[in-house]
Amino acid sequence: MCDLDLLRRLLDREKIDWLGYSVGTWLGAQYATSFPTHVGRFVFNSKTELTTDWQGAFADFEAGVERWFREDFLPWGRSTTAATDATPPATRSGRPTSGCAPRSPRRRPC
């Protein structure tokens, strides 16, 4: 964290503004904890675990991605496919479409 504060001083800034993605969220949170008087506007855009060190955060990463996939992504994907099947987009050929992946004409449809 001292490196970031050194950078702030070298740039002759009183405060740092921060936009943190992924591990940048953790890094910004650690800086804000270590140097609260030098924090400007901070935006964190991640589900990074902020209550542990980076080794602990990475140890839990796989379980977090699995939970996100199961609870958020799959339901969204299913609803998007259902919406596409209910109101298929127009095609140049006039053939109906569905939410399944495009296939070669020689293969069976979904």
From TrEMBL:
Residues 79-110 are annotated as: Disordered. Pfam families: Abhydrolase_1. Residues 80-91 have a biased composition (Low complexity). GO terms for molecular function: catalytic activity. Residues 4-82 form the AB hydrolase-1 domain. InterPro entries: AB_hydrolase_1, AB_hydrolase_fold. It comes from the Bacteria. This is AB hydrolase-1 domain-containing protein. It comes from Saccharothrix espanaensis (strain ATCC 51144 / DSM 44229 / JCM 9112 / NBRC 15066 / NRRL 15764).
